[in-house]
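for ur thesis appendix - ABC transporter ATP-binding protein. copy paste whatever u need, i formatted it the way the template wanted (i think)
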Amino acid sequence: MNAPPSEDHHPVLPAVLSAEGIDHFFVSPEGTVLQALDQVSLSVADGEFVCVVGPSGCGKSTLLRILGGLDAPSAGEVRLRPELSVVPPVAFVFQDCGVLPWLTVRANAAFGLRMSGVGRKLSDGVADRWLARVGLSEFADSYPDRLSGGMRQRLALARAFASGSPVLLMDEPLGALDPQNRLLMQEHLLRLWEQEHKTVVLVTHSIDEALLLGDRVLVMSDRPGRITDTFTVPFPRPRTAAVQDTTAFARLRVRVRQALRAHRPEEAAR
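the 3d part is after this line
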């Protein structure tokens, strides 16, 4: 029996997204049945920004896909607040941006709305407003091949926010960017979230990114992934990258790093 994860804080607001007892098995290319997730449970409150960190291959991306309905769990249940079914409840942002090269920048930003049945005039108007907010208005009629990597990721964020979905699921959305662009995008994402207060679950390998962006950080063990620790991020909002230079940030970084190491097989064997 696994011990329950340690928690600094439980959200007190009503859960928008929750999962209970999620297991996930898959078959390797050699035909071996492997377990990716082991009894994962979590609850995300309305407007909360939750970050998930863990070693490579621990099942973070699998968990995100299950939360968003792209994959089915082998056991357990995912629940969304019932009233969210009236609109597409979830929008994804992936590391590779997922922009469609045959559509203009405007059409990419409007894609989620168009798939929901919103007319062209209205969806293009919403898209144009979001392109302005991410600094891409002058590229609205261009195609994505004219955009840099950072600009394509801004487009992916604009599309997710423009969709109207109350829940955003982000899988290493900034992982492919160089350090300078990554920091700029982190601050951009902070501003957008602080203005919109979407409910966000973000998977990242970066402890610093998780502590900069999140309200809580969930730590996962090596495969099969379990949530072993939960840390509340105490830094007030609005938040900027300058918080990373504080002693409190450094101390919390050490605590999260220690939690990650504690559940690696090579560490446990020592």
